[in-house]
Amino acid sequence: MTLMFIRIFFFILSGVVGFYIGSILESNLLGLELGLLSGLVLIFLERRLHKVSVRGLSSMVFGLLLGIVMAKLISDILFLLPLGLFVQSTSRVVLTIIFSYLGAVIALRGKDEFNIIIPYVRFRRQDVREENVLLDTSAIIDGRIFEIYKSKFVPGRLIVPEFVLKELQKLADSQDEQKRQKGRRGIDLLNTMQKDPKIDVRIREDELAIKDDVDTELVRLAKLIDAKVCTTDYNLSQVAVLQNVDILNVHELFNAMKFVIFVGQKIEVKLVKEGKESDQALAYLEDGTMIVVAGAKHLLGRSVKVIITSVLQNQAGKMVFAKLAYEEGANNNQ
Question: Which helix (H) or strand (E) segment is 135 a member of?
């Protein structure tokens, strides 16, 4: 609404200025028409440039100014040589054009490193930290990060670099059925997330020039914009930690939230299927942890009380062994 008001005000102001200039030139109507036309053209250009980032624009302006300064220095040196006024004037114009172009282009290409050269180019308050979380392909496909974010456990803004989005598209177009399903699932989840007003997610289009694999570029980008990386990839987590990048590992979060089990604890579970051994039965906790109950095959389908006898932890997760609680009571009576 505010932008629309500004545009209307600028359009009217352009007409007024055009009418005033036209009155000086004794052509009021032509001046008004040219003023309104100029306002429309500028508004059209402004709407077409809505994707231009402030960082990219500031980088380009800095490069342009640097190019002009370099051209001025070299031109002053050439003026010390007896080259003639025409050559000196021509060389100044040519050098200004060349160095302005090179400075603007080089600065625009290196806009991600621009804040390293000039630390305060971001023009943000230093007492307020903007939390950015980069999502990698595995976290998007996994999908749990979206519910975690909606529950406010992850602060800040979710950012999907364009090279991660391209990797998802590559998976979605893969000949392998499993990879294709993963890629399409990730893209569908991103679309759903963008439509959810409770989730602040952005697609980062002005990404770095890809020089290495996606994981390496993700860590590099996280260091440049001071962001965290959300992933379910163990190898990426280890590489990021070595480079002092904060990691949000979804697997580690869910493992930390699992029901705490300790030896000797008595709990009630429902036996749902047979175990590998002839007398075993299996039960599952709400978080998916499997419990192997010895001597309970004949009680399948029933809820029973068991006593935890041992807990094994490995990379795949946690495995719990138990025995029927009433057997413990019978042994004590004996």
Answer: strand 132-135
Does 142 share its domain with 202?
yes
Which of 194, 222, 256 corresponds to the end of one domain? Answer: 256
Instruction: Answer whether residue 221 is part of any domain.
Output: yes
Task: Return phi, psi of residue 195, to 5°.
Answer: -85, -15
Torsion, Cα 133 139 141 144, to 10 degrees, reads -90
228-231 and 132-135 beta bridge pairing: parallel
Tokens, residue 305: 């009380």
Residue-wise pLDDT for 80-116, tens only, equals 877 777 777 778 888 888 888 787 777 766 655 554 4
Cβ-based burial of 292 (10 A; exposed 0-12, middle 13-18, buried ≥19):
buried
Specify if 261 maps to a domain.
no
Give the domain range for residue 14. 2-115
Residue 123 lies in a domain: no
Per-residue DSSP letter, 246: -
Residue 224: HSE in the Cβ half-sphere, 13 Å Cα cutoff: 16
Token pair for 110: 């290196």
